[in-house]
Amino acid sequence: MRADGAVADPAAADPAIDDPAVDAGRLLHRLRRGLPLVERPYAAIAGELGIGEQDVLRALAHLIEAGAVGRFGVIVDHQALGYTANAMVVWDVPAERIDEAGRRIAACGGVSLCYRRTPRPPVWPYALYTMIHGRSRDEVAGRVQRIAARCGLEEADRRILFTVRRFKQTAGCYGRTEGGGQR
């Protein structure tokens, strides 16, 4: 992800690496699984890829400079921390207020995602989508009420869609797959 929030195409990053020993697609694919929790994580990754630690560090510096990698972050399993209730909350906000409402909601605690999408009125008028987490459904519902009040959305039509079952939860994957194909 670039600093401006756009996702760069990892396959396009291949030419940015001057070292022919390093395949940017393989390196990016490996980095998506996270850093190993060892004293020298880049050395461990280098060992997996059959290259040197300095090769990994140089390639990573090039990928950051090219905008293919914007930052590293931690992905937390919220359920393991006791946050077992979550809901997608969809909001019907007037078009002229969506950007402001989105920024304000995104700044609230317990909100992990906030997106604007195209509504499909009259059946589905909701254009603002958020994921809100809590330790119980009551906590999530209370958080939704507080967010609505804080953001001036008390009157906005909204639906709280609680998760019933999680089938998959992973970090986003872009570009090449393990076998070298595109996703």
From TrEMBL:
Keywords: Lyase. InterPro entries: AsnC_trans_reg2, HTH-Siroheme_Decarb, NirdL-like_HTH. One of its GO terms (molecular function) is lyase activity. Pathway: Porphyrin-containing compound metabolism. Its EC number is 4.1.1.111. It comes from the Bacteria. It is an enzyme of class 4 (lyase). Residues 81-168 form the Siroheme decarboxylase AsnC-like ligand binding domain. Residues 26-68 form the Siroheme decarboxylase NirL-like HTH domain. It catalyses: siroheme + 2 H(+) = 12,18-didecarboxysiroheme + 2 CO2. Belongs to the Ahb/Nir family. This is siroheme decarboxylase.
